[in-house]
Design goal:
Layout (H helix, E strand, L loop, with lengths): L1 H21 L7 E11 L10 E7 L13 E11 L2 E10 L4 E10 L3 E11 L6 E13 L3
Antiparallel strand pairs: 1-2, 1-7, 3-4, 4-5, 5-6, 6-7
Length: 143
């Protein structure tokens, strides 16, 4: 009985390990075009036109957000569950402001959809909260 139980436990551990090892983010490494629309409280929807940027995205670096040059940022968490990537990022600006964000995107090989919640605080100003809706599509190889 004990041997059978030990064998079942060993098989279960192996299957869990194998499932985690075999699972890979459904993402094609390459150059991506990312379209972002921003929603802010008090500003009519559609008043801010969508922005497009390109970014090299890989399975190892799957967060579709990069800081501006005048920001120092660190990723405080980054998780992959299935085809979904979630993250938290803290940025500090040279002028003393800060930006805290969390986001979530789901990849479907050559496309993704997601959302990021942003809380921006500048010295002497009231905090601004934004929601960024994102969509992306792979457009080629990284340069």
């Amino acid at each position: 009985m004990m041997k059978r139980l030990m064998l079942l436990v060993a098989m279960f551990v192996f299957l869990v390990w194998a499932a985690g090892y075999a699972a890979e983010l459904n993402l094609s490494d390459g150059l991506w075009e990312i379209t972002t629309s921003v929603e802010m409280a008090g500003i009519p929807a559609g008043s801010m036109p969508p922005q497009k940027v390109t970014q090299c995205i890989t399975k190892k670096d799957a967060v579709p957000q990069k800081p501006d040059k005048d920001q120092e940022c660190k990723m405080t968490s980054n998780k992959v569950i299935g085809d979904t990537v979630t993250w938290n990022m803290q940025c500090r600006m040279k002028d003393g402001g800060k930006i805290d964000s969390d986001g979530k995107v789901t990849y479907k090989m050559d496309t993704f959809d997601g959302v990021s919640n942003v809380n921006m605080t500048e010295p002497g100003a009231q905090a601004v909260k934004m929601t960024q809706r994102m969509s992306g599509r792979r457009i080629g190889e990284c340069k």
